[in-house]
Amino acid sequence: MxxxxxxxxxxxxDEVRAFLKENVTDDMRRAxxxxxGFLDDPEVAIDFHKVLYEKGWVAPHWPKExxxxxWTPVQRNIFENECARAGAPSxxxxxxxxxxxxxxxxxxxxQKDFFLPRILKGEDHWCQxxxxxxxxxxxxSLKTKAESDGxxxxxNGQKIxxxxxxxxxxxxxxxxxxxEGKKQAGITFLLMEMETPGITVRPIIGNGGDHEFNExxxxxxxxxxxxxxxxxxxxxxxxxxxxxxxxxxxxSAGKVRSRFRKLAAAAKKYCPDDPDMASRIAELxxxxxxxxxxxxxxxxxxxxxxxxxxxSSLLKLRWSQIRQETTELMLDVVGADAxxxxxxxPLYEALQLPREEEELLSLGPRYMNYRAYTILGGTSxxxxxxxxxTMLGL
Length: 394
Ligand SMILES: Cc1cc2nc3c(=O)[nH]c(=O)nc-3n(C[C@H](O)[C@H](O)[C@H](O)COP(=O)(O)OP(=O)(O)OC[C@H]3O[C@@H](n4cnc5c(N)ncnc54)[C@H](O)[C@@H]3O)c2cc1C
Fold this sequence. Notes:
Blueprint: H1 7-23, H2 26-33, H3 42-55, H4 73-86, H5 93-106, H6 109-121, E1 126-129, E2 145-149, E3 152-160, E4 170-176, E5 187-193, E6 199-205, E7 211-224, E8 228-229, H7 235-248, H8 253-270, H9 275-303, H10 311-334, H11 347-350, H12 355-370, H13 380-390
Parallel strand pairs: 1-4
Antiparallel strand pairs: 2-3, 3-7, 4-5, 5-8, 6-7
This protein binds flavin-adenine dinucleotide.
């Protein structure tokens, strides 16, 4: 699918292309191509983030007053597509996509003044402390407790599946501050430093062999109340607001399409005369087109201000399924060549092979890791329930 671009849009696209050509190095591109998990490693992405910062392009979706670009939705779409096409790495999306907008709405002036510029400069790396053993879909049942002690809270408990906790210096977490009334009514939203005594991070290895997520333990962690966002026990409302940005805040079309292009190229090479495969790939391409249109519509609506709303659940649901289908089809297309497995991680550090061979070794782990797309950020069953309630009124 190609959007009809105005001459101004084409000039903008060319400017973005030239910028990316100059600043996305081959090492960055290779690391991205060989990352079989969900996120680029910060050490791979930070240099590009700094260049974006200098250019003023780190957070195009933020209001201009906070450092956004003021681009139109089409420009935003062009930028994301071009970044994906160029293989540009992404640094700490959690900070730019979720923490920033959440702080703009619920943070104190002091918190906004302190954290937002640091996010833009790439000075902090954030991780998300929502899930606990036994509290995933039923998040409101969480038990990690924060007890008031003067100007501090004392935090005890455990988080799980905390992506990049081992690479982060800050965590935003949900903690229980009351057991009275409804379970949602006793939750508080807390920002903490990962270096605080009493916080321990233990790795979990994903089914693709990568270390991306962790368990995080809190043992009598003393943390200042100045890190609380909003009022005590207001955390559930803030948590849900942030989740809208997690599920629908970041355009996905560019990245999915760049993987789809690789799939189409592999099909040409491995099974050029297979009509069944051609039809499966065409169907997937149509799904991507449809989702991209929905995404652009969503971007235009948000250009007027506001949060993604319930459509974020639809975007999350379908993009995760499409991402899974793309990796599954890729394995079907490549066949036995995709069955080789290199146990070392990260692959971009472990391998020194011709590029095409290296990329084949990332297909299996990526397929395995991507099974989790329909779980992370809220499972597909939870998204369909939200959609049924909010959009269908069931
Ligand atoms: C790769 C990855 C990265 C993650 N990163 C983070 C992170 O950085 N920070 C963080 O806090 N969490 C993170 N998570 C955790 C994620 O949010 C949870 O795994 C998710 O919310 C599901 O919770 P659960 O694993 O406890 O599964 P459960 O909630 O136990 O669900 C098990 C199954 O039961 C179904 N189910 C549960 N309740 C219902 C219901 N009411 N109706 C219908 N079906 C239901 C689910 O859909 C699922 O199929 C990550 C998870 C993954 C896989």
